[in-house]
TrEMBL record:
The lineage of its organism: Eukaryota, Fungi, Dikarya, Ascomycota, Saccharomycotina. Residues 6-71 form the J domain. Pfam families: DnaJ, DnaJ-X. One of its GO terms (biological process) is protein import into peroxisome matrix. Residues 150-171 have a biased composition (Polar residues). It comes from Naumovozyma castellii. This is J domain-containing protein. GO terms for cellular component: cytosol; mitochondrion. The keyword Chaperone applies. Residues 118-149, 172-187 have a biased composition (Basic and acidic residues).
């Protein structure tokens, strides 16, 4: 018996709602009541916070049980309720995929790499400048010393007849000090180790997921149950930002790697050659698309800069771009930047997942029969993710959210 139904009523669900139904209801209500969607309603922020609190309680099994038995007062999270805006961003922010693809660091690392590279160059230039000054100073002292002692005129007369008139130089000792690693090299080494740890963790998580089927009776009913479980999970994940694209990317890699492995178990291993060659072609195309998207964004940025310069400079006979023209170009640039960011992220996801799948399917510590089961389960999971799509209503809901997040990001920058 539920003593208080207020939180359920806020989300528009019954007290018997499942975890998936609670999350779906929160998504819908939080978008409807978001303050940015209701700028002229002074009570919107209050309603938005109340919806957030309801979700924070009902999405936590322990808090939900306390709420059902004792009401609101006994169902407060440790440390209090999170801010509604932060909760909103966390739910829609993309962390839901972390157990599949890990943390996406490519774009963040590119910026860090540029910073460290610039620092290393500055330090190198400083060192070179210091060395030049030392050499000039040393040379100047040597010249003064030679001039005072007269060695510059008497040295040739001290040589025996058989000696060459060329200056005899003493070979300097080789610098046996190991080369100091640059900041960039240290950072790259650190990132490589972090990537290895991440792939190890993701591999273990994937093995656990597949074990739901591989460690079962492994009949038709078990396979159907396995697919049903991940269809439900995929239906939640598809509502994340770029959710469908990420699911299709994961599904494609799972299906591809499983097909290559299973084919390699037949026809003396030759069955996987065709699939492997096809996969390599896919890697090349991914790289090409990533580079093309980045160049496209860069070109659009240059065009926008030219338009802004033309707007500031009074050039005879040349019409200045209007505010509307600049706004359209900025919007176009935002789309190109997002496209470049997505292609970069997709490239990183595919690279990570290929390594994870190799680790799962090439594990020498388990019998071949188990690896074959893993391959078959991985192929089934890939098919599930490849067949996920949003309904028209879900697509509109996701777009509304992405607009709200973009608007919130703009405000933070200001």
């Amino acid at each position: 018996m539920v003593v208080d139904t207020a939180y359920y009523e806020l989300l528009g669900i019954s007290p018997s709602a499942t975890a998936i139904e609670i999350k779906k209801a929160y998504r819908k209500k939080s978008i409807q009541e978001h303050p940015d969607k209701n700028p002229n309603d002074p009570t919107a922020t209050e309603r938005f916070q109340a919806i957030s609190e309801a979700y924070q309680v009902l999405s936590d099994d322990t808090l939900r049980l306390k709420y059902d038995k004792y009401g609101k007062k006994e169902a407060v999270p440790t440390g209090g309720f999170e801010d509604a805006a932060e909760q909103f961003s966390a739910i829609f922010g993309g962390d839901a995929f972390s157990s599949y693809i890990g943390e996406l660091t490519l774009l963040k690392n590119l910026q860090k790499t540029e910073e460290l590279s610039a620092q290393d160059e500055a330090e190198k230039a400083k060192d070179e400048e210091g060395k030049t000054k030392d050499e000039v100073s040393k040379e100047s002292k040597n010249e003064q010393s030679e001039h005072k002692s007269g060695t510059s005129t008497t040295l040739p007369n001290l040589r025996s007849k058989g000696e060459s008139s060329q200056t005899v130089s003493t070979p300097s000792k080789k610098d046996e000090t190991p080369k100091k690693k640059t900041k960039l090299e240290l950072f790259e080494e650190e990132q490589r180790l972090e990537k290895e740890k991440s792939i190890e963790k993701l591999s273990n998580t994937l093995i656990e997921r597949l074990s739901i089927l591989t460690e079962s009776v492994y009949d038709g009913a078990c396979k159907e149950s396995f697919q049903k479980k991940f269809v439900e999970e995929a239906n939640l994940l598809k509502m994340e930002s770029f959710g469908v694209d990420i699911l299709h990317t994961i599904g494609a890699i799972y299906y591809e790697k499983a097909s290559i492995f299973l084919a390699s178990q037949n026809l003396f291993g030759f069955g996987g050659v065709f699939h492997s060659m096809k996969a390599k072609g896919g890697v090349f195309m991914d790289t090409l698309r990533t580079v093309s998207a980045a160049i496209d964004a860069q070109n659009t940025m240059k065009e926008l800069e030219k338009m802004k310069e033309a707007n500031e400079t009074d050039v005879d006979g040349t019409p200045k771009p209007t505010v509307d023209d600049l706004a359209k170009q900025e919007q176009l640039l935002m789309g190109k930047v997002l496209s470049a960011a997505w292609h970069g992220s997709r490239y990183e996801i595919t690279s990570t997942l290929r390594s994870v799948c190799d680790k799962v399917l090439e594990d020498k510590t388990v019998p071949t029969a188990t690896l074959v089961r893993r391959g078959e389960a991985l192929k089934l999971l890939g098919e599930v993710f490849l067949n996920v799509y949003r309904t028209k209503a879900e697509q509109e809901e996701a777009q509304i959210f992405e607009e709200l997040v973009a608007e919130a990001t703009k405000k933070k920058r200001k």
